[in-house]
Amino acid sequence: MVARRGGSPFGRCCWGIWVLLCRTVLASSLVLEPIYWNSSNSKFHPGQGLVLYPKIGDKLDIICPKVDSKTSGQYEYYKVYMVDKDQADSCTIKKDNTPLLNCAKPDQDVKFTIKFQEFSPNLWGLEFQRNKDYYIILDSFINKKQENSRSNFSVIKTCSNQRVDEITNVEYLKMQFAGL
């Protein structure tokens, strides 16, 4: 028996459709512009934070930038958390919330990548549902010594455990992932 080359026209057509569908799905996911999480980021709008509209399959980097030797100023220490709407509105972090990102290394960029996916193969991976809002806030502290000396994670409206006049713009560092 002689093997036929090329297979049936129907099989080739199905294979072509499959390849086309895979390319379309892969091309539709985006790597979103990274968010540099600090109080000088002009993308955070007063009173409303930053609102993004990612799609399933998109990726987003949240970056705590390192201290630039050319700029003067103090490094901003943060812990970044994903919280529910009530926590975001009241700027509170529960003790069982796990930080997504700990911005505590002034000499290097610290990055956390969020992949917007409905199912994660990772036990601790984030999963997102379509048409549901997600919120990210931070808990900030002025210097490294304060990180371990705090007695609780409840924070005031500025999403900071410091007085309002000690940290500027921190209340605007809230992100809402809407319309997934």
Explain what the structure shows:
The structure is a single chain. The chain has 180 residues and is of the alpha/beta class. It has one domain (29-177): Immunoglobulin-like (Sandwich), CATH 2.60.40.420. 18% of the residues lie in helices and 21% in strands. Strands 2-8-7-4-5 form a five-stranded mixed sheet. It has a three-stranded mixed sheet with strand order 1-3-6, with no helix packed on it. The termini are far apart. 23% of the residues are buried.
Task: Please render the helix and strand layout as text.
Blueprint (H helix, E strand, L loop, with lengths): L8 H20 L6 E2 L13 E3 L6 E6 L12 E7 L1 H6 L10 E3 L6 E6 L18 E8 L2 H6 L25 E3 L3
Parallel strand pairs: 1-3, 2-8
Antiparallel strand pairs: 3-6, 4-5, 4-7, 7-8
Distance between the termini: 54 Å
Largest sheet: 5 strands, mixed
Shape: elongated
CATH superfamily: Cupredoxins -  blue copper proteins
The proportion of residues in beta strands is 15-25%
Please count the helical segments: 3
Mean pLDDT equals 69
Tell me the number of strands. 8
